[in-house]
Amino acid sequence: MKTIEFSIEINAAKECIWATLWDDATFRDWASIIDEGTYMKGIMKEGNEIQFLSSLNGYGVTSLIIKLNPNEYILFRHSADTKETGQQEREKEWTEGTESYSLTEKNGVTTLIVKTDVPQEQEEIFSTRLPKAMERIKMLAEKVY
């Protein structure tokens, strides 16, 4: 695994950006830039498992929420790679990797930092798509704000 990290400044309150990150409609919007058709299944609560799944091919990852401070920080640990819409495990490409989202606000400008472990062979893809997804998050959050 390779850890990659990106940040972006957004002219919106961190509560607005948090909602943009995790509300179903906006999550599907920006996450589809990374992997088309991605949606999230589960309840965002520390200690819960969440599934990130592709509506196109049924592949995804099951992740445990390790740490959750609403509107500020979330840390996921990928506990299983899945297929068949999360019903079966598959090869362990993402398993044990982590992914975090951090928000800090100052004078109405919020910095979003996304840090994620990616399989070495997917580093180039994610290094291209993740910044584009973050630009989409910025556009969606600033539009609401």
UniProtKB/TrEMBL annotation:
Domain of life: Bacteria
Protein name as annotated: Polyketide cyclase / dehydrase and lipid transport
